[in-house]
Amino acid sequence: MKNNKICVGLDIGTTKIVALVGKKNEYDKIEILGYGKSKSLGVHRGVVNNITQTIQSIQLAIEDAKSTSGYDIKDVVVGIAGQHIRSIQHSDYITRTKPQEVINEDDIQKLINQVYKLVMLPGEEIIHVLPQEYKVDGQGEIKGPMGMYGGRLEANFHVVVGQVSSIKNIGRCIKSSGLEMENITLEPLASSDAVLSKEEKEAGVALIDIGGGTTDLAVFKDGIIRHTAVIPFGGNVITEDIKEGCSIIEKQAELLKIKFGSAWPGENKDTEIVSIPGLRGRDPKEISLKTLSKIINARVVEIIEQAFLEIKNYGHNDQKKKLIAGIVLTGGGSQLKHLKQLVEYITGMDTRIGYPGEHLASETVNNISSPMFATSVGLLMNALERNGSNTDNGNDKVLEEDEFEPDAIDNSSNSEIIYRKSILEKWGDKLKEFLDNA
Prior knowledge:
By secondary structure, the chain is α+β, with helices and mostly antiparallel strands. 34% of the residues lie in helices and 29% in strands.
């Protein structure tokens, strides 16, 4: 049976809040049934700083999505970003009491749970524990240790950490908007699902998602996520600089950036000038496009250099860790003219703009396949994936949460199908429980 369950992805960004409603069609592509978009008022640099305004913005986007899709929205998969997100590398091991038995899921889970107990800074909580490679009795570079014999199981982990208060605030906004949080996922992970191919993740790629308030980075190599970072500025800072540098209001600065902005100052001639209407009977302002692109260039170079520094921190200069597929740019900020050329010039790495269109059905509204919807599409994919993996093919129905046993083995066919919750889902459940108790 094809899983036709309708799901919702909710992207709470600094500039906009997007709710995407969709389902999988018979070709396994995502069919967008409706979407809602509202201006984000209570979020600053990816972090909720005004609960009431955020709730109103979420409700507006949800209402919009309800009316365009005709679907009553109850559950959503939400993205989390913000400058409080950081990641660490950690190694841990367990000594098995019965080395004569093969390593199973419980051993791996025990090791992962041990990492969750790491002591963090006050007010911080572990969001994701992502295993990299395993070692069994000192033998390294093992991708999947299940079924092997060994006494000592160890692994390297990529641990993503965030502030408890920020996570709770997002949960509170969702609950107060009359919604249930089905899952919460890191936004750069969602964007990477939407715009990166398997081959790119295998070869090594850095995804730079330039949003309104933050720039998110995710580095993949050998199909595994290796590094994540959130840089605390994005497109809004560029607008702010234009506003200050040209002494105009924010709305005009944003329009200037979108219509005439370029990240490469050499492109504009000195004679190219744009006239902006003055405020309340004042004379119009004349702004040289060369000046405009110089202002934009200065800030964009800063953002790209920060992201490149993170790529170097991962170890890109090391031959074994080289990112062969280069850089993929996405997010609203990636639509800036000549940005691709500037990134290639600064980093010396191949660069392309990432569009989420390849996962969408062909009849999808054109503007959804724009890079600015990469995170929303990724969150919707996460929701559909989550529901798809909970589908019992024998009974043509979606398993409810309480029926979904971590190790329920379906013996109806010769091959054993084992339903297991991913680390992410278990964490999502823990968070839901935590919010309900709060």
